TrEMBL record:
Matches recorded under Pfam families: FAD-oxidase_C (PF02913), FAD_binding_4 (PF01565)
Protein's name according to its UniProt entry: D-2-hydroxyglutarate dehydrogenase
Keyword Oxidoreductase appears in the UniProt entry: yes
Tagged with keyword Oxidoreductase: yes
Gene3D superfamilies the UniProt entry points to: 3.30.465.10, 3.30.70.2190, 3.30.70.2740, Uridine Diphospho-n-acetylenolpyruvylglucosamine Reductase, domain 2, Vanillyl-alcohol Oxidase, Chain A, domain 4
Cofactor requirements of the protein: FAD
Length: 464
C-alpha cells in the first residue's frame, strides 16, 4: 500500500475533516515547547471517541505506522515531537469532563481536558485540583499523566500520579484496559495504572482518567524572602517547615528576577537586591499561623539567612508574588534556554548544588545562567541562555558537551536527570545516569508486552 493509500484509510477511521496534512498543521502539531528538533509528521489525526483511538492504533499496527500522542504541546522533553513521518494523535477533541463526584471527590476527564479547566471545575465545587504549573492554561490532563507532571505544589500534594484514581487506556495492541476503577483500596496484584503514568505514551494512550480532588485550601498566603547567598535557602526551608505546613517552597536567582522585572508588568517584591529569593506558601488558617510565619521570618533575619521579605496581604498580592516565579520560564523562552531539570534528595541539595555550580561556572563562563526551581522537593532548574549572536546548533552543542559532567554529578548523588519534565528525546541518551542497565532492560521488556510492534511513540525514553 502506498503512503497516500494509508492516509486515505486513516480518514475513514475518524470524523470528516479530522485528519490534517497541511504544512502549518504538521509544523504546529508536530512539536512541543522544545526547540532542538524539527517536526516532520506525515499527518495529524483528531479522534473524538475511545473507539476511534482503538481504530487508529489497530490501523497503525496493521501498517506499522508510528504514532505520537499530542496534548497541549507544552512539554519540555520532546516526548510529543514527531521527527520521522509519524502520525500525531491529538486529543484536542476529547476534552470533556464528567460530573464532579463530591462524595468520592473525583471527576472523570477525557485526556484533552486543559489543566486549568479541571482546576476551575474543582473550584466551582469548593474543591481543589492541586497539580499546578505555569503552563496550566494550555497543558492537557493526558499529557500531565504521560509525563507525571509535577510543578509548584509538589511539596504538599505530590505529583500527578497521586491524583489519578483510575485510568482507561488503549494499549499499543489496541486493547482497552480499565485500570483501578477509581478505588482507594485495591490489593489485587500489579497496579498497571501506575505504569502508564509517566510512560510518555510509549505503552498506550490514556483515553479517560478519573482525577482526585482535594478540599479547597484556606487563605493561601505567600512570602518572598531575599537571602544573602544560596547556602541560606535550605536553613530557611527547615525553619519554616518546622513551624508550618508549607504548600510550596520555590527559589529563584537575582538573574531570574531581573528577567521578570524587565517585562514591566509585575511589581517587585521589595527594593533590597538579593542574590537569591525563596517563595513559600502556607494556609494562614488562623492569626496564630500568620504570627508563627512572621516569628520564623524574624528568626531567619536574626540568623543572617534572610535580608528582606514580604508577606501577601490579599489575593492580588498573592497572585503578584507568584508571578515572580511562574513567569520565569515564559520570560526567558525567547533566549532558547538549554534546560536542565535535575533532582536529588532534599538533604543533599546544598552539597549537590555547590558541585553543579562549580561545573557550570567553569564550563559556561560566557553564558548567562539562570537558576530557579522547586527546591523544597530537591528539584533544580538550571537554564543556560543562548547568547543572541550564537547560532542555535553551536549553542546546543556546547551545552551538550557539559552534560557528561553535570549528569555524572547527578549520578554520584543518586539523583534524577529529569525530575519532572520527562525523558522524551531530550534526555533519552542520558537515561543510564539515573536508571541501571538492568532497569532499562525491564522497561524495554514491558514496552514489548504492551506495544509488540513498537508503534507507540517510538524512540522516546529509549532509542529503538
Ligand atoms: C517551571 O518550574 O517553571 C517549569 O518546570 C518550566 C521550566 O522549568 O522552565
Ligand atoms: Zn518546574
Amino acid at each position: 500500500m502506498t503512503h497516500s493509500a494509508f492516509l486515505e484509510e486513516l480518514h475513514t477511521l475518524v470524523d470528516p475533516g479530522k485528519v490534517l496534512t497541511d504544512a502549518d498543521s504538521l509544523e504546529a502539531y508536530g512539536k512541543d515547547w522544545t526547540k532542538q528538533f524539527a517536526p516532520a509528521p506525515s499527518a495529524i489525526v483528531f479522534p473524538k471517541t475511545t473507539e476511534q483511538v482503538q481504530a487508529i492504533v489497530r490501523w497503525a499496527n496493521t501498517h506499522k505506522v508510528a504514532l505520537v500522542p499530542s496534548g497541549g504541546r507544552t512539554g519540555l522533553s520532546a516526548a510529543a515531537v514527531a521527527t520521522n513521518g509519524e502520525v500525531v494523535v491529538s486529543f484536542d477533541y476529547m476534552n470533556k469532563t464528567g460530573a464532579v463526584n463530591t462524595v468520592d471527590r473525583t471527576v472523570v476527564c477525557q485526556p484533552g481536558v486543559i489543566t486549568k479547566q479541571l482546576q476551575n471545575l474543582a473550584k466551582d465545587h469548593d474543591l481543589y485540583y492541586p497539580v499546578d504549573f505555569a503552563s496550566s492554561g494550555s497543558s492537557q490532563i493526558g499529557g500531565n499523566i504521560g509525563t507525571n507532571a509535577g510543578g509548584i505544589k509538589v511539596i504538599r500534594y505530590g505529583m500527578t500520579r497521586n491524583w489519578v484514581a483510575g485510568l482507561k487506556v488503549v494499549t499499543g495492541k489496541g486493547d482497552l484496559l480499565e485500570l483501578n476503577k477509581d478505588l482507594i483500596k485495591n490489593a489485587t496484584g500489579y497496579d498497571l495504572r501506575q505504569l502508564f503514568i509517566g510512560a510518555e505514551g510509549t505503552l498506550g494512550f490514556v483515553v479517560e482518567a478519573t482525577m482526585r480532588l482535594d478540599r479547597a485550601p484556606k487563605n493561601l498566603t505567600a512570602m518572598v524572602l531575599g537571602t544573602p547567598d544560596f547556602d541560606s535557602i535550605m536553613p530557611v526551608l527547615h525553619a519554616f517547615r518546622g513551624k508550618l505546613d508549607l504548600t510550596a517552597f520555590e527559589f529563584f536567582s537575582d538573574k531570574a528576577l531581573a528577567k521578570v522585572m524587565a517585562r514591566g508588568d509585575v511589581p517587585p517584591p521589595f527594593t533590597t537586591e538579593c542574590p537569591f529569593y525563596a517563595l513559600l506558601e502556607f494556609e494562614a488558617t488562623t492569626e496564630q499561623v500568620s504570627n508563627e510565619a512572621l516569628a520564623t521570618f524574624e528568626h531567619c533575619v536574626e540568623q543572617g539567612w534572610v535580608i528582606d521579605g514580604v508577606m501577601s496581604q490579599s489575593e492580588q498580592q498573592l497572585a503578584n508574588l507568584w508571578k515572580l516565579r511562574e513567569y520565569i520560564s515564559e520570560t526567558i523562552s525567547h533566549r532558547t534556554p538549554y534546560k536542565n531539570d535535575i533532582s536529588v534528595t532534599v538533604a543533599q541539595v546544598p552539597a549537590f548544588l555547590k558541585e553543579i555550580d562549580a561545573i557550570v561556572s567553569e564550563s559556561y563562563p560566557d553564558f548567562e545562567v539562570v537558576w530557579y526551581g522547586h527546591i523544597g522537593d530537591g528539584n533544580l532548574h538550571l537554564n543556560i541562555l543562548k547568547p543572541e549572536d550564537l547560532d542555535k546548533e553551536a549553542f546546543f552543542a556546547k551545552c551538550v558537551s557539559v552534560n557528561k559532567a553535570v549528569f555524572e554529578t547527578v549520578q554520584k548523588y543518586n539523583g534524577s536527570i529529569s525530575a519532572e519534565h520527562g525523558v522524551g528525546l531530550v534526555k533519552r541518551d542520558y537515561l543510564n545516569y539515573s536508571r541501571s542497565e538492568a532497569e532499562i532492560q525491564y522497561m524495554k521488556a514491558l514496552k514489548a508486552v504492551f506495544d509488540p510492534n513498537g508503534i507507540m511513540n517510538p524512540g522516546k525514553i529509549f532509542a529503538v
